[in-house]
């Protein structure tokens, strides 16, 4: 009887000790018939090519259907004469700015900071990256057109790499609108506030300002 | 004439019965335990060609998941970032680090890094990241606390039974769509009601038929 109990205890120990244990061995699948099929999915390995990549780069200069990109202002941030556009070519609504905020916080805030002051975690963490400029400098706020920001996001500038492969075109413009909103936020005057908000502030309350 | 079976042979039927009952229980338990994806799949933690730490990039640097896995909201396949994404920062940060040598080589030679896929669904089951992320399934629900993983390990079984659990009762797992990439998200007390309302409002109808995934 004692042996039986011991066996039970040992069994229980063995059985419950292994589940979810980390291992470098690939999962055991008894039937492998169609787990790895004779085709290539995105980002899979294809030993046929020298770089072992199944995904091939398109020949430069080719145009896919529906992606002609004939609107220069939208896709390059420049007019047909090659001049940076003054204002965003997409129509701006609050939803666009909110989308821009979301995208900015994902891709830009890492270096440029949530407030656009160039104090992102990469900068404050002292990792040795070239310092990001603040968006609230006079040059970026007053002198550069919207197209400049779009152009920098797309192609990069000096030490900053381009983000064309990570951020879609319309999202890049949305980010531009949000950067403009950030710049405005740091340089707002009393006159920018609606009457009702001013009253609330005078009464010592925090004002909840909605954008028209 | 001597008896063929001695008296203690009376125990034999009892022992046989007991052993087979015990054996049956053990067999059921063994199959249930060892053949389940919780045992076979969970915890798969292959060695990667680069010692990439999610714990540092997503945890300590608090980068959003979508910085690198940027097509997760649009595409079925959530991409592994290209070498270019690594070089966004590592063209200036830790440029001499031997750990990053494979990344620099990949950048110089234009040859992709051979990452090892951890979460591999069989090729006959189709999965779309976009349709889940846009409906409000958090990264954490299926991939675990990635921001605490030095090396990524599979934390959920990704078995069909596990998928269907959520497709039958999505309100237990959904979260607000803008919290999808939040790690360590805590559901509010009334989250089931909120999610039921979300399911109704957004018309989320998780399919439980074959054609949804198996075509």
How would a textbook summarize the main sheet of chain A? Answer: none
Query: What coarse outline of chain A follows from CA principal-axis ratios?
Result: extended
The span between the termini of chain B is: 74 Å
**What characterizes the major β-sheet of chain B?**
none
Q: Which CATH first-tier class of one domain in chain A would you pick?
A: Mainly Alpha
Mean pLDDT of chain A: 83
Give an overview in words.
The complex is a heterodimer of chains A (212) and B (215). Chain A starts with a helix and ends in a 10-residue tail after the last helix. Chain A has a domain at 74-189: Cytochrome Bc1 Complex, Chain D, domain 2 (Orthogonal Bundle). With 212 residues, chain A is mainly alpha-helical. Chain A contains eight helices and no strands. Chain B has one domain (54-212). Chain B has helices at residues 11-34, 37-40, 54-60, 65-68, 83-90, 101-109, 129-133, 139-143, 160-168, 191-202, 210-213. In chain B, helix 5 (83-90) packs across helix 6 (101-109). At the A-B interface, helix 3 of A face helix 1, helix 2 and helix 5 of B. Chain B: Pfam families: Cytochrome_C7 (PF14522). Chain B: InterPro entries: Cyt_c7-like, Cyt_c_III, Multihaem_cyt_sf. Chain B: GO terms for molecular function: electron transfer activity; heme binding; metal ion binding. Chain B: The chain crosses the membrane at residues 12-35.
